[in-house]
Write a structure and sequence with these properties.
Layout (H helix, E strand, L loop, with lengths): L20 H9 L9 E4 L8 E6 L7 H11 L3 E7 L4 H18 L4 E9 L8 E8 L6 H11 L2 E8 L5 E5 L11 E6 L21 H10 L6 H14 L9 E5 L6 H12 L2 E4 L6 H8 L3 H22 L5 E4 L2 H12 L26 E6 L2 H11 L5 H8 L1 H13 L6 E4 L4 H16 L2
Parallel strand pairs: 9-11, 9-12, 10-11, 12-13
Antiparallel strand pairs: 1-2, 1-4, 2-8, 3-5, 3-6, 4-5, 6-7, 7-8
Helix pairs in contact: 5-9, 6-9, 7-14, 10-13, 12-13
């Protein structure tokens, strides 16, 4: 395999609207001399708890049971780990996405790869992502990995060995920094954190809580993604022209595809004489394919801005009539959280976490209805429709665990929370039920 070269560039501090202090702090976090301060986790089995371990500069006594657990998890073959090696978050996101694509495409038979990451306990935005490789192929990957690391600098690579005492150690395959030249670290088990560590990186990376945070991401990548400038111009134009006065109720319909949202929104539109909007708005349609191909950080920022554009449209329409909205912030957040948090439903942020809080600067709806149907009925409807599905919708079909996490994330969002409605009955019965909800909660 090969690593794509992403040319490093200086951070565009002059264009950012905040202090450079957080950027410098993050750089300090990523100084690789502090590897032994970090905790690592590897998702060998998405249905069980991750394996957590730390690194020590000196051999440490480890119990037989713990060594046995490490040995079972690491498995056979030659062992390696790759860690994205970039300070700039746009460059880091792209490097990680390219590395993942190339590993999946180019690894030889007999070599498998699982996602791993490291973090500083309780330190937000400290997660560094990478991959753990188990090589049982005929030819060792070490030479190829080391060569690519030297050529591109896109990642740092380590190999793992087990000594005569059963202890695991790791050593960098190659280092350009003399002070770190091939230091050996000993692998020691680490305690599981109270919360899944991916939670440290969700806020304003996977889910955005202020328009300026999402905007900043597109500003930072505007040199490499020209469409970013066009999107920002649309945002500036529409939000500048927007004025808001208290108007008619705003009803949002949420749910997975094939739960009946389209049918119900059209019916409510006619029954209430309401305006009908969709999120993301049509003005972003020309850019969706481009941003859907980008790493999550950039893709999520794009869709976050779509919510603010939808809010601007809601403000205008609600001055004249009730507004029905097909998806809004709940969808953006639920899918992002379920994707960012790997593994089990238990790994999701706890109910009541600030991650489920509505953005303070985003217009709130009057009522949010979450439509649900059982998985078998939803699949039947999807097959009947025969429409193309997004990558995430495809994941929903084949991955029950992901579907459960999306559903649970929907239910944990608060202020406003979703009102869950079973959409399995006939459409007219569902319409009657939702109209009763709207009349009781919105006064229509």
């Amino acid at each position: 395999f090969r690593f794509s070269v992403i040319k490093p560039r200086l951070p565009r501090y002059a264009t950012l609207r905040s202090s450079t202090a957080p950027v410098m702090a993050h750089r300090n976090i990523l100084r690789w001399a502090h590897w032994h301060s970090r905790v690592f986790w590897v998702e060998f089995d998405l249905k069980t708890e991750p394996l957590y371990f730390a690194l020590s500069l000196k051999p440490t006594d480890v119990g037989d049971e713990q060594l046995s657990a490490l040995s079972r998890a690491f498995g056979s073959g030659k062992l390696y780990s790759l860690h994205v090696n970039c300070d700039d978050r746009i460059q880091r996101a792209k490097s990680y996405a390219n590395l993942k694509k190339e590993l999946c495409r180019d690894l030889p038979p007999g070599c498998d790869v699982v996602e791993m990451a490291s973090f500083l306990p309780e330190v937000k935005n400290s997660v560094v992502r990478g991959f753990f490789l188990r090589d049982n192929s005929v030819a060792s990957l070490a030479e190829r990995i080391s060569h690519q690391v030297r050529q591109t600098g896109a990642a740092r690579a380590f190999s793992y060995e087990r000594d005569e005492h059963g202890r695991y150690s790791c050593q960098e395959l190659w280092s350009a920094r003399a002070e770190e030249a091939r230091a050996r670290y000993y692998v020691i088990p680490a305690a599981s954190p109270e919360r899944h560590p991916s939670e440290l990186d969700i806020m304003n990376s996977d889910v955005f809580y202020r328009m300026e945070e999402a905007r900043r991401v597109l500003e930072e990548c505007s040199d490499t993604i020209p469409e970013s400038k066009a999107v920002l111009e649309i945002v500036d134009h529409q939000l500048e022209a927007c004025r808001y006065e208290e108007g008619f109720p705003i009803i949002v319909l949420e749910g997975l595809d094939a739960t009946g949202k389209t049918t119900l929104t059209e019916s409510l539109h006619k029954a209430l004489g309401a305006s009908l909007l969709k999120s993301p708005p049509q003005c972003l349609a020309p850019f969706r394919e481009r941003f859907d191909s980008e790493p999550p950080l950039i893709r999520r920022a794009f869709y976050a801005l779509g919510n603010y554009l939808t809010a601007a449209q809601i403000r205008e329409e609600s001055s004249r009539a009730p507004v029905i909205v097909d998806r809004y912030w709940h969808s953006t957040a639920a899918y992002a959280i379920a994707t960012a948090v790997s593994g089990r439903v238990e790994n999701l942020p706890l109910a009541g976490s600030e991650i489920y809080a509505w953005p303070a600067d985003l217009l709130q709806p009057s009522l949010v209805v979450l439509l649900t149907v059982n998985p078998q009925e939803r699949l039947r409807r999807l097959r009947h429709r025969g429409l193309e599905k997004t990558e995430e919708e495809t994941q929903l079909e084949i991955n029950q665990l992901f579907r459960q996490k999306v559903d649970e994330a929907y239910r944990r969002i608060r202020n406003p929370a979703c009102v869950v409605v079973d959409a399995s009955p006939a459409p007219d019965r569902v319409l009657h039920h939702v109209l009763s909800l709207i009349r009781s909660k919105c006064g229509l």
